[in-house]
Design goal:
alpha/beta; TIM Barrel; binds manganese (II) ion; four-stranded antiparallel sheet; eight-stranded parallel β-barrel; 351 residues; globular; 37% helix; single chain
Length: 351
């Protein structure tokens, strides 16, 4: 399998030369951030990332993410134009060597946490989602700002979007996902790209918004919409694993065996008795997931795709983008290398 690391471009406090020094590191996971969702990615921006990675002994071959605009998720009249743009961005990424394009189909908000800097007993900080902190908040009534939420929406826009998703419901969202996949996957196939859907985070409804990429039954349904290896999963253990109903090692083994995982996000999460959760260190004993069982399931099923450590804690006084510091993700990567080696797996590096 191929070791990768997310990088937020030139503004990222974590530098490519640092990422290169992580043992076994190969691929950079990044995106073009200078255009609005729904617009075509400029070729020069894609080329710029690819060139910088190459200059640093790395390869830019995983995109995370090309965002899917609300117009497509809601099935609004402008969606055909935006799907055409999306397909063009995929073609351009492929031209510069991209093999996997990650995306998600979450309404309005990408992920939900209530605090980004919860201090643990050892002094490290991490992202958490506490029901206590969420209780009593109503985005239809209050102007709430949770960390990670798109700040470009006004309160009124958020209210309109929530109402629009309320009208289409889960089945409407499924229909719009199918419409999108049936147009996008053939283009991806043609240019040698795998589309990798990231699960909803957390994998249950928040504020009544429909969420569909949540569990084994729904992943099966998603994969059956277009039965192609190019219609694949970005299996995020921490997102799916924040619901105790998901058996992550079993799901990893099943989908790896079907050759439908393009990209693995591997991290741990600690589920609390009331189903609140904390992002824990990668080590199995720090959280609720058995990371060795997850890696073993990948190795045993011949997984040869990309993996990356996911969100890390902030440790050693590092400051920067919550969840995306260098140190703890590098520790996570080293730990994953150890598990892969111990299970007889192979880490492919560049020549
Ligand atoms: Mn993830």
């Amino acid at each position: 399998m191929k070791s990768s690391f997310r990088w937020y471009g030139d503004d990222d406090p974590v530098k490519l030369w640092q990422i290169r020094q992580i043992p076994g590191m190969r691929s950079i996971v990044s995106a073009v951030y200078d255009v609005k969702p729904g617009e075509v990615w400029p070729e020069e921006s894609i080329k710029h990332i690819a060139d910088e990675c190459r200059e640093n002994g790395l390869v830019f071959d995983v995109v995370e993410s090309i965002p899917v605009p609300e117009e497509i998720k809601l099935g609004r009249p402008d969606r055909d134009r935006m799907i055409d743009n999306y397909c063009e961005s995929i073609r351009r990424c492929a031209k510069y060597g991209v093999k996997v394009v990650t995306y998600n189909f979450m309404p309005v908000f990408d992920w939900t946490r209530t605090q980004l800097d919860k201090k643990a007993a050892d002094g490290s900080t991490s992202l958490v989602m506490y029901w206590d902190q969420l209780k009593g908040l109503d985005p239809l009534k209050d102007d709430i700002h949770l960390p990670g939420w798109d700040t470009s929406y006004t309160q009124e826009e958020v209210r309109d979007l929530i109402n629009a998703y309320g009208k289409i419901g889960e089945e409407g969202l499924w229909e719009n996902l199918a419409y999108f996949l049936k147009r996008v996957v053939p283009v991806a196939e043609e240019v040698g790209v795998k589309m990798a859907i990231h699960p909803d985070d957390p994998p249950y409804p928040i504020f009544g918004l429909p969420r569909i990429i949540t569990c084994e039954k729904n992943l099966d349904r998603m994969l059956s919409i277009v039965d192609s290896p190019a219609n694949a999963l970005c299996l995020c253990t921490g997102s799916l694993g924040s619901s105790p109903k998901n058996d992550i090692p079993a799901m990893v083994g099943k989908y790896a065996g079907m050759n439908r995982i393009a990209f693995m996000h591997i991290r741990n999460v600690k589920i609390l008795p009331d189903t609140s959760f904390e992002e824990a260190g990668h080590l199995s004993r720090n959280g609720s997931l058995d990371l060795n069982a997850i890696v073993k399931a990948l190795v045993d099923n011949g997984f040869d795709g990309y993996f990356r450590p996911d969100h890390g804690r902030m440790i050693w006084g590092e400051t920067g983008r919550a969840g995306y510091g260098l140190y703890d993700r590098a520790l996570g990567s080293a730990y994953l290398n150890g598990l892969i080696e111990a299970n007889g797996g192979t880490i492919e590096t560049l020549e």
